[in-house]
Amino acid sequence: MRILFFISLISATLFSNILKLPHEEHELKNGLKVILVKYPSPGVVSYQLPVHVGSRNELEKGKSGFAHFFEHLMFRGTKKMSGKQFSDLYSKLGAENNAWTSLDETCYHGNVATKYLPKILEAEADRFQNLKFSEKELKDEAGAIMGEYNKNVSQPEFQLEEKLFETAFKIHPYSHTTMGYREDILKYGERYKDVWPFFDRYYVPSNVSVILVGDIDFKKSLALIQKHFGKWKAKTLPPVAIPSEPAQTEARSALVTLDKPTQTRVVVAYRSPAFSTKNNENAAIQLLSEVYFSVTSEFQKKYRYDKKWLDSVDGGYQPFLDPGLWALSLKFAEKGESHVEEVLKAVDKLIEKIREEAVEQAKLESTKKRFLNAALTTWFESPTSLAHQISILTNLERDLGVIDRFLENISKTTSDEIKATASKYLIDTNKTVVTLKGAK
Ligand SMILES: [Zn+2]
Questions:
Q1: What does the alpha-carbon distance between residue 65 and residue 149 come to, in Å, rounded to a whole number?
Q2: 178 CA distance to ligand 1 centroid (A)?
Q3: Residue 280 CA to ligand 1 centre (angstroms)
Q4: Distance (Å) from CA 86 to ligand 1 centroid
Q5: Alpha-carbon gap, residue 71 to 51, rounded angstroms
Q6: What is the whole-number distance in angstroms between the Cα of residue 148 and the centre of ligand 1?
Q7: Which partner from 21, 276, 419, 420 sits 20 to 30 angstroms from 38, CA to CA?
């Protein structure tokens, strides 16, 4: 019930001030950002502590996957508490507690009863300031990461992604996945001395935010955060010189072959712009993905549902801090195995059409409406989903207004802008195609 009420409340004000919920933004003296949003989830609060560091920051050779490795190490205890005591505390309070790492971000998050929030904030502040673990614990964690890698690598999608980014990027650290290279992970156990500079560099107040969404009191929450994080010493983040990827000059392709039988998968990717709400390029790419490749698109209707040549189509837009990739992922059905070339030709033709023909006005308007409704439904579904979305978007542009700006861009983008953006990015010299084939 609460969810339905919520959506209709938000839909009524679709095109401006999306975030109608009471909210506040603060910055502590040490640079820590605080985002507080009141959400009608009686007695419960969702918390997120994003760190502005991801595999994008892994510049040194041999240290791929360090942001993710560090995410794991953050559960290994502090000067006051062992890793076990830390996880016992969360279980005792009935708090969910997890973390994830991406190309651009590392995020620690969970949900807890509001009455236990002081204890959680105390523990979180402690691990951000007083992390401590032994060499043996680091070795154990290195083993866990190797296990995670092995599990991932058994999935064709992971191998496809690894090859795609390695082929599309030669200099920029997006060339390796967040997981990192196997040969680097194998040496993690010997990295006890090397992980601390990473912590000292990136885990500083000005690089971290505390996001609370739920049943909270603004004044009390801010005072709590001040109490536990306020003494954390400010430190200037040294400038990070992430190399820019030079312009691509010709189409690239690569092949992954597996030694076991599996369905053919192809990903057709193009270099895409960095996330920004200063222009409509990201909104245009999001919209063209929706119009031409979503479940309701003519492409899916023809090749997935009528001919049944494809099992799945994902023309997914994903935001990146630096210029990244827009990728169309195709998974072929058994019936489609003999039509791979035909489908790829159809994709090329469709991309050409996107560059040359403007989207029909009515089609564009209905797509915008559908996208905005879906975004608002999923984003505002629960305090957790909203806190997650805030964590991702404020990592890209570091204020809460980014939510409104991005959705406003979606609503303002014109057919001509979509055409212009496609003509700028969806071109052959920006293209990388990776094919994955299984054993016969
Ligand atoms: Zn992990």
A1: 10
A2: 10
A3: 34
A4: 18
A5: 10
A6: 6
A7: 276
Compute the distance from residue 100 Cα to the ligand 1 centre, in Å: 7
Q: What are the tens digits of pLDDT across the range 169-184?
A: 999 999 999 999 999 9
Residue 95 amino acid letter: A
Cβ of 48: how many Cβ atoms within 10 Å?
Answer: 24
Amino acid 10: pLDDT? 33
Centre of ligand 1 from the C-alpha of residue 171, in Å: 25
CA 144 to centroid of ligand 1, rounded, Å? 8
Domain boundaries in the chain? 19-229, 252-437
- The CATH topology of domain 19-229 is Cytochrome Bc1 Complex; Chain A, domain 1 (3.30.830)
- 252-437 matches 19-229 in CATH topology: yes
What is the Å distance from ligand 1's center to 335 Cα?
A: 36
CA of 422 from ligand 1 middle (Å) equals: 35
CB 168 within 8 A of CB 271: yes
Q: What predicted TM-score, i.e. pTM, was given to this entire model?
A: 0.93
Token digits for 203? 């885990």
Q: What is the pLDDT of residues 70-98, one digit of tens each?
A: 999 999 999 999 999 999 999 999 998 99
Long-range contacts of the stretch 310-316 (C-beta < 8 A, 24+) = 310/336, 310/343, 311/263, 315/289, 316/289
**Which token pair is 427?**
């071109």
Q: Which is nearest to 403 in space by CA: 415, 413, 389?
A: 389
CA of 83 to the centre of ligand 1 (A): 16
Q: How far is the CA of 300 from the centre of ligand 1 (A)?
A: 34
Residues 6+ apart with CB under 8 A from 245: 169, 170, 171, 172, 174, 271, 322, 323
Architecture of the domain delimited by 252-437: 2-Layer Sandwich (3.30)
Residue 18: predicted pLDDT? 59
> Measured in angstroms, how far is the CA atom of residue 283 from the centroid of ligand 1?
31
Quick: pLDDT tens for 401-429.
999 999 999 999 999 999 999 999 999 99
DSSP letter string, 55-101: GGG--STT-TTHHHHHHHHTTSBBSS-BHHHHHHHHHHTT---EEEE
